[in-house]
Amino acid sequence: MADISVEATPRGFRIAFAGDISLRDAGRIFAEFHETLHRAEREQTIQVDTRGVTSTGLPFVQILVILDREAFSRGIRVDFMSLMSSAVKEAIIDLGCHHYFPDLACSEEEFSRLERAPLAGMSQEGGA
């Protein structure tokens, strides 16, 4: 089960995650994000700290995308990149969701792999 903490900062809020994030955690994570969005004001920043995350998958990545879209519509900035763990970065790239995170720095090797695998979750042989 993932650890989640939310704290106010001078510029907005910081949401920190640690541990293995699984499907069981999705509802709790979404609720924390939703409540934090309602507490944040226009022009504030929600900093998402995933440095303590050891593994994650599609539900968490989808929640990050939803948070970003909802925050944008409310005029709230979200900072995913400055405190992103390698596990979250790998999940985003492996799931083919890197286009939702334009600041995600890919190495040339990662970019080549992404170009060869246009369908997220599909192996080169066509299986899931």
How would you portray this structure in words?
The protein is an alpha/beta fold and 128 residues long. 38% of the residues lie in helices and 23% in strands. It has a single domain (3-116), classed as STAS domain (Transcription Regulator spoIIAA), CATH 3.30.750.24. A 4-stranded mixed sheet has the order 1-2-3-4. Residues 119-128 have low confidence and may be disordered.
Topology:
Elements: E1 3-9, E2 12-20, H1 26-39, E3 45-55, H2 58-74, E4 77-79, H3 86-94, H4 108-116
Parallel strand pairs: 2-3, 3-4
Antiparallel strand pairs: 1-2
Q: Count the strands?
A: 4
Largest sheet: 4 strands, mixed
> What's the CATH topology name?
Transcription Regulator spoIIAA
Instruction: Write down the CATH class.
Output: Alpha Beta
**Poorly predicted ranges (pLDDT <50, ≥5 residues)?**
119-128
Q: How does the helix and strand content classify structurally?
A: alpha/beta
Radius of gyration: 15 Å
Number of helices: 4
For the record, the count of structural domains works out to 1
User: What's the CATH H-level homologous superfamily?
Assistant: STAS domain
Strand ordering within the main sheet: 1-2-3-4
Strand content: 15-25%
Would you identify the CATH architecture? 2-Layer Sandwich
Distance between the termini: 26 Å
Mean pLDDT: 84
Shape: globular
Helix content: 25-40%
Written as H for each helix and E for each strand, in order along the chain, the element string is: EEHEHEHH
Compact overview of the structure:
This is STAS domain-containing protein. With 128 residues, the chain is of the alpha/beta class. Helices cover 38% and strands 23% of the residues.
